[in-house]
Amino acid sequence: MSSRSTISRRRFLKAAGMAAGAGLLPVSSVRLSFADEKKDFTFAYISDAHIQHIRGTKFVRNWDRGLIRAVAETNLMVPEPDFVMFGGDLAQLGTKPELDHGAEMLSKLKHKTYCVMGEHDYYLDLGEHWSKLFGPQYYSFDHKGVHFVVLNSILTFDEWTHERWPSAEQRMLEMAGLDNPNGSPFMVGEKQRDWLKQDLAAVPTTTPVVVFSHSPIQKIYKGWNFWTEDAEEVQALLKPYASATVLYGHVHQIQYNQIGNIAFQSVMATAWPWPYPESYAHAEMDWPVMTVPMNRADPFFERDATGWQTVDLMKGRTGLNYTLYNNTARTVKFCTKTGRPRDVSYQDESARIPPQMHY
Amino acid sequence: MWKKYAGIAVVVVILTVAAASVWVHTDEFTGEDLQRWNKEYQSVVAYGRELWVSAELGNNGVSCAQCHPNGANTHPETYPKFQQQLGKVVALRDMINWCLRNPLEGDPLELDSAEMIAIEAYLMTERKGVAIAPGKH
Fold first, then answer.
1. What three-state secondary structure class fits A159?
2. Thinking of the domain B37-137, which architecture would CATH place it in?
């Protein structure tokens, strides 16, 4: 191949990537922004792949395709993300075949990749195999002036975890059923809260803090574990910070909320979408009213209402770009005027469209 | 042969009607009857829930509840309705079978099978109290 054709191929790929960035691809990204624009950056956020083993070398094709697509598209991002976050629930039932198959797919990412623990990764062997693949279950790191914290927020009561179930397999199955009344509320737990307190002690309150968790660090609907039992205690540790954001997975839908100084934003799943709790007729819940819902899913398009995101960090505040496979992309970013996250296109009641009505 | 059975059937019907007119007043039933009927119904609902969370209903280990916790987003009160992706008006059970064949990669249920009726009973019960709205989107 001549050098000339190499260059034109590279140009072509770059152009293709830019077209993708313009909204053709399903990606969620986050860009953090600072007074000094050089400090603004973007990372990619993929979550809830739920890789599910059938038998032998067979895995559920539908869920595999979701993760493969998100990884491929993340690799095409221009400009490239600073890093990639995987938001938890890589596996469906926490088995080695599932975690290994998922890890192998994530290994195709050409960027530094961080991982969050999900309950589907944890409750078979209490995170042992996951930790061998991905390292510590909670940790923090700094990037371009932002302090990032990763929590394992899907722990629960010791009695439920260690004493209630006759086998690890049954414990995993009981927690895997979202609507299973035998499940148990998620929590961060005292040990990690103490660690977080120590970790934040060295971080000035003027530093933007972004927390990654799997569960919402809010109490939305207990019946489906859209819930963190010690949410208030964790929120209290973030209270001194001028800019704090919690980004979470688990819910397989667009949600956002503001509690005091803390902005909350969820990410989409690559596997399948979940109904909003308000569409369960018997649910008692505390719904974040500022959310403009994602479109109702069309089951005939198996990637509909799934996707991934890019996250822009601008002046320490997050803007989430939801890249949705069969719908128009959505952007929800922190509005400094109102002091809360806001959908840039659909926030006003008059701007909403019929597919956003859930019932 | 056929006539013989038909004759027996007629006799049985006459005797049943006669007996019923003596012993049973169909417009009277007790609290115990109501309890029994509800128990029968709830046992079918429970079977429907069992199928809903089962990894065995389809062929790939995926269960209905994986995408539809508590049967949410199935909208049983809106059927029959025009299913735009299929280009015709369908019943809830058609969509149940569509899901069985596609996301669950399995085989459809007989439309009048005990399993189909149980799944419908479960979904309707999770949706109890919501106004019926056939055709709604």
1. helix
2. Orthogonal Bundle (1.10)
